[in-house]
């Protein structure tokens, strides 16, 4: 730090006692003598005023207490890329007189190296670097042209988050010297983006991952720079107050992942503008305030042409409170994984089961795999839960008379498909249960020994809460066979020819949706 001020000081990013700011003014502030810098703090609580002093406005701030005047010698204008790199990944000579022993310093760790001259060692170590982090290292510029390419040409991954870079042009000067660059993190740098001048062709020709979180970047600025990212696969734009204002035309066509989380202006209409990115597989839109989504090109039971490749959707921490949101997700042709936690809709005890029943192709929910038995149980429970409503709406066990009204189908678009899959629910199943009376929880089941077909079929009444482990214990006593040898499954008259394994000893008969009249199959 010194009293020397760069010629391009206005707009420069600076650090003062650990706080970050942007220079908005340079000059005298009478009546106090000397040179002053007017800065606008990233943290407005750090400032004292709005850029004015004794009635004179020297610069403007977005916040009434966002500004301060500071002396140039109190300000850190940062260092060039290579200076920061050498300071962070520096080789220090050892104590051996022959120069054969030295140590590599990475952060605070010392790693001993043997067998090279000190200077050669420093150069070779820099050239060997492939993955570097210069987080919060006060990098402000590229430095002398060509020196980065000469010193460290093999770098592929660069973390430049929370530095003092002031413009996209400076990022370009760094990147064009890193021809192998694949992964770049620029988060928390307040950059000025060019209004029209395109980035030189080839600068980001290998860039696959770009992180621009907490930068204040706009969607228009992203699209303006996007032509220079021809092979970009992952783009992170978290916490930028972004509004999607236009469709990506001939850009971002290879992008597989887009993170728009914590951008509160995002809504369903804006999502339509990115719905035809052909390779988009992962979409993260948590904490945006999203409450609804609609795919107007697809009717009930049909698939949408929007988001054709989307497999993984994250909508945590939103305002989703209506099941129509989940119904719409079933229209996505490729969706396999959904994360939907901390939404009003998911606060109920049965929310998970209902989501599974409503989205037929879902394989993972909230990072948990949906097993076949879990899906079957959820779908059968859903059928029973809304069976009476289905009948009142015109549903019928006779296929020729089964015509539920449009209102029911809109609320339960998969219900008819579930009836085709499992059979229509019978009146007996839809009677109101009396949960505290044991007789209403007893199942009358047949027991067939598949290992001994000649043995007589037994019939037993068992509580639906009985675990598979206890059922096996009962059968062990009845059939005089060791529990450890028993393999248990069942078949239902509703699904002729299909056998369901009862593989988890800790689950109950009810978990597997075993019903009155079903037949337990015993093998050993």
List the helices and strands and how they pair.
Layout: E1 13-16, E2 19-29, E3 32-41, E4 52-53, E5 56-57, E6 67-70, E7 79-80, H1 81-88, E8 89-93, E9 101-106, E10 109-114, H2 118-128, E11 131-133, E12 139-141, H3 147-151, E13 157-159, H4 168-175, E14 183-185, E15 209-211, H5 219-225, E16 234-236, E17 257-259, H6 268-272, E18 282-284, E19 312-314, H7 323-329, E20 337-339, H8 351-358, E21 364-365, E22 368-369, H9 372-385, H10 387-392, H11 406-411, H12 415-422, E23 442-449, E24 458-463, H13 468-479, E25 487-491, E26 499-501, E27 519-523
Parallel strand pairs: 7-12, 11-13, 13-14, 14-15, 15-16, 16-17, 17-18, 18-19, 19-20, 20-21, 23-27
Antiparallel strand pairs: 1-2, 2-3, 3-6, 4-5, 8-9, 9-10, 21-22, 23-24, 25-26, 25-27
Helix pairs in contact: 8-9, 9-12
Family: Belongs to the TBCE family.
Subcellular location: Cytoplasm, Cytoskeleton
Keywords: Chaperone, Cytoplasm, Cytoskeleton, Leucine-rich repeat, Repeat
Structural class: alpha/beta
The overall pLDDT, averaged over residues, is 89
- Poorly predicted regions are 92-99, 105-109, 111-116, 433-440
| Terminal CA distance | 82 Å
Give the strand content: 15-25%
Number of DSSP E strands: 27
Radius of gyration: 33 Å
Numbering strands along the chain, what is their spatial order in the largest sheet? 11-13-14-15-16-17-18-19-20-21-22
- Using the alpha-carbon principal axes, give the shape: elongated
Helix count?
13
Biggest sheet statistics: 11 strands, mixed
Q: Give helix % range.
A: 10-25%
Query: What kind of assembly state do the chains in view correspond to?
Result: single chain
């Amino acid at each position: 730090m010194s009293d020397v001020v760069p010629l391009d000081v206005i707009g420069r990013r600076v650090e003062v006692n650990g706080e970050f700011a942007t220079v908005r003014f340079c000059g005298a502030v009478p009546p106090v003598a000397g040179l002053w810098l007017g800065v606008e703090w990233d943290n407005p609580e750090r400032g004292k005023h709005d850029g004015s002093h004794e009635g004179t406005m020297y610069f403007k701030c977005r916040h009434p207490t966002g500004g301060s005047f500071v002396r140039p010698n109190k300000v850190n204008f940062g260092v060039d890329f290579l200076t920061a790199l050498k300071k962070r990944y520096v080789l220090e000579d050892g104590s051996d007189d022959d120069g054969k022993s030295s140590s590599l310093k990475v952060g605070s760790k010392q790693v001993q190296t043997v067998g090279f001259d000190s200077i050669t060692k420093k150069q070779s170590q820099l050239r060997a670097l492939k993955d570097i982090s210069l987080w919060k290292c006060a990098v402000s510029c590229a430095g002398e042209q060509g020196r980065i390419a000469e010193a460290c040409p093999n770098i592929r991954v660069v973390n430049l988050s929370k530095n003092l870079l002031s413009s996209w042009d400076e990022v370009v000067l760094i990147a064009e010297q890193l021809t192998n660059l694949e992964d770049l993190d620029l988060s928390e740098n307040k950059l000025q983006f060019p209004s029209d001048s395109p980035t030189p062709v080839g600068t980001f020709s290998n860039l696959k991952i770009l992180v621009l979180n907490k930068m204040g970047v706009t969607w228009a600025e992203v699209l303006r720079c996007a032509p220079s990212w021809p092979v970009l696969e992952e783009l992170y734009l978290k916490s930028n107050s972004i509004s999607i204002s236009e469709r990506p035309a001939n850009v971002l066509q290879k992008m597989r992942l887009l993170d728009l989380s914590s951008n509160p202006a995002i809504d369903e209409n804006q999502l339509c503008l990115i719905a035809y990115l052909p390779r988009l597989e992962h979409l993260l839109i948590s904490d945006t305030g999203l409450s609804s989504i609609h795919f107007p090109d697809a009717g009930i039971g049909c698939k949408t042409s929007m988001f054709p490749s989307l497999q993984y959707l994250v909508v945590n921490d939103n305002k989703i409170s209506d099941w129509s949101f989940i119904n719409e997700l079933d229209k996505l042709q490729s969706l396999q994984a959904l994360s939907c936690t901390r939404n009003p809709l998911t606060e109920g005890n049965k929310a998970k089961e209902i989501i599974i029943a409503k989205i037929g192709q879902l394989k993972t929910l909230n990072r948990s795999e949906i097993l076949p038995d879990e899906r079957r149980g959820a779908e059968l429970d859903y059928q029973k839960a809304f069976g009476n409503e289905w009948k009142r709406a015109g549903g019928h066990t006779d296929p020729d008379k089964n015509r539920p009204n449009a209102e029911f189908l809109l609320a339960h678009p998969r219900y008819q498909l579930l009836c085709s899959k499992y059979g229509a629910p019978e009146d007996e199943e839809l009677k109101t249960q009396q949960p505290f009376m044991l007789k209403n929880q007893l199942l009358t089941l047949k027991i067939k020994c598949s290992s001994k077909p000649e043995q007589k079929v037994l019939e037993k009444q068992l509580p639906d809460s009985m675990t598979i482990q206890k059922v096996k214990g009962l059968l062990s006593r009845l059939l005089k066979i060791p529990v450890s040898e028993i393999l248990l499954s069942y078949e239902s008259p509703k699904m002729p020819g299909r056998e369901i394994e009862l593989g988890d000893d800790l689950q109950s008969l009810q978990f597997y949706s075993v019903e009155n009249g079903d037949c337990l199959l015993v093998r050993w």
